[in-house]
Amino acid sequence: MSAPAPSRISVLAFGAFGVGTSGYIVAGLLPALTGELHVSATAAAQLVTAFAIAYAVGSPLFAAATGTWERRTLLVAALAVTGAGNLFAALAPGYGSLLVARVVTAVGAAVFTPAASAVAAELTAPERRGRAVALVFGGLTVALIFGVPLGSLISQHLGYRTAFALVAAFSLVSALAVRLALPTVAAPPRVGLAERFAAGRDPRVLVMLATTVLACLAAFMVYTFVSPLLAATANVHGTTVTVLLFCYGVGGAIGNFAGGRATDRWGSRRPLLVVTVAITAVMALLPLTTVTPVAAGISLFVWGLATWSFNPPVQHRLIELSPGHAGLVLSLNASAIYLGVGLSGVVGGAVLASGGPLLLPEVAAALTLVALLLVGAAWGRVREPREQVAVG
């Protein structure tokens, strides 16, 4: 017997926690990775890039390839692949094989996240859809609250391999939980790859996807290198950085749910504009507001609050624009998220090498300002929904 509807969404959030920790954990492991693998911080950050680019490319491809799978089976398989990738990372003998392991992990994550978001939207009444999607993505923010800081702490004492092994175990437990709690969910009509990308031909959809890329690039080029940034501004290291990452994650969790509620109340436009302004301001001020551990904790909390309020109105807007193909546009948005994350390792590494860690938040603020201008200039009239949401 399947669980009640709220519990079903919670189980999807539980899986998202494992997927989110898999994706974000490298930021917390960066000092351990550089020390144990004897590589630079920029090289270690390419583990983020490998995961993210594989996710961005794989999300629409694997969504098309698995389009006729029953949704519960698909979600369980995706979490199993995520677990296997993390186990491979724990056992990888060197940097090259660890890169391959990150790609395997990304394949599972690329399938799970958009499918879970679409299933959550399908199982929820339209007036509560923003909160339902926010709850699934709440699993990602909880990964920032507990997964990344805990991984950082574990890596300091037991090495990065133990951290990856624990994420693998959690992913497999999540797969079992989804199998037991979620009902069977029929696959939608088969959608080919060409039609999947056709859903993104609407210029308004393209604007939202471009905004997502810019916002995620900005956020993660700073987050990935937050350890050297905090060392430069507040002269903190080790466990103190772990505590500060926890502050960011708490802010992110609150911001995610606040963004969902604000979207349900005011629609997507107003919250998205307000949040993007807030992110730009917070980023620009980070070098000035993180000069002591206490100030850094407050700043990272506000930064997480603003950053993670961004996704619920974006996803809500995409569903408004293409109500009959919600799963398709959410899959494209997932690709946009991880394209931004993937570019963050490259762009952030280049900025770090050329201008140092204090330049990172300033470049990030410039990117979010461009995103703000895009949203403000290109917001069009929302088409009235004519179709029910399809889980694709």
Automatic annotation (TrEMBL):
Membrane topology: Multi-pass membrane protein
Entry keyword annotation includes Signal: no
Residue ranges occupied by any Major facilitator superfamily (MFS) profile domain in the UniProt entry: 8-383
Any one GO molecular-function label of the UniProt entry: transmembrane transporter activity
TM spans (from-to): 12-33, 39-62, 74-93, 99-120, 132-154, 160-182, 203-226, 238-259, 271-288, 294-314, 326-352, 358-379
GO cellular component terms, semicolon-separated: plasma membrane
Annotated Pfam families: MFS_1
Subcellular compartments: Cell membrane
The keyword Transmembrane helix is annotated on this UniProt entry: yes
Superkingdom, taxonomy of origin: Bacteria
Key words, A-Z: Cell membrane, Membrane, Transmembrane, Transmembrane helix
InterPro entries, sorted: Bacilysin_exporter_BacE_put (IPR022324), MFS (IPR011701), MFS_dom (IPR020846), MFS_Efflux_Transporters (IPR050189), MFS_trans_sf (IPR036259)
PANTHER family recorded: PURINE EFFLUX PUMP PBUE
Protein name: Predicted arabinose efflux permease, MFS family
Organism: Amycolatopsis tolypomycina
